[in-house]
Design brief:
The chain has one domain. Helices cover 83% and strands 0% of the residues. The longest helix is centred in the middle third of the chain and has 39 residues. The model has no long low-confidence stretch (mean pLDDT 90).
């Protein structure tokens, strides 16, 4: 983890939980939603240009990863984060625990952590697939751009999972126990 990330995590301790959820959606989620179609389009173009090279396999692997990641982000945004916002608002207003779709946030957090582990394993497999392949000579620059996009995407997803595991989820569980 970079020093900047660590400082950002420490600063997050003073940010209300509901505001952290909004930041995640506006930041990581938005960047993922922008990156996925761009990377898919580049990989599709490479696959069409080099149908017998590495690009079709990388395209299929990334498409599967992207589908799982976007479903994961939707669960965060539509299931867990609204519950965390409700808990944070109730706590701030001195009210009792609001009715939620689940008795504790532990279960959705465990589901999301399991998904994050699977996504990280899929990222590892995709990274190995990309690193094992030589860039086709016809479009080296596009391959370099794809590799760069995939590396940045991987860093974003891994940092997102680490932030949630080390900062957001523990704070959510503490609030859930307290209220």
């Amino acid at each position: 983890m970079s020093e900047h990330e660590r400082e950002s995590w420490i600063a997050a301790e003073s940010v209300p939980l509901d505001a952290l959820c909004e930041r995640v959606v506006a930041g990581t989620h938005a960047r993922a939603h922008a990156a996925v179609p761009r990377i898919l389009a580049r990989l599709a173009a490479l696959a069409a240009h080099e149908p017998h090279g590495a690009a079709p396999a990388v395209h299929r692997a990334f498409a599967a990863l992207a589908e799982g990641l976007l479903a994961h982000l939707a669960k965060e945004k539509n299931i867990l984060f609204p519950a965390l916002v409700a808990l944070a608002e109730a706590d701030r207003m001195g009210r009792s625990r609001p009715p939620l779709a689940f008795p504790t946030v532990l279960h959705p957090i465990q589901v999301l952590e399991a998904e994050q582990a699977r996504l990280t394993a899929t990222l590892d497999a995709l990274d190995a697939l990309v690193q094992d392949q030589e860039a086709p000579t016809a479009d080296d620059e596009t391959w370099r751009a794809v590799k760069s996009d995939l590396a940045a995407f991987r860093c974003e997803v891994v940092a997102h999972a680490a932030f949630q595991t080390e900062v957001l989820f523990p704070r959510a569980l503490e609030l859930d126990r307290r209220i």
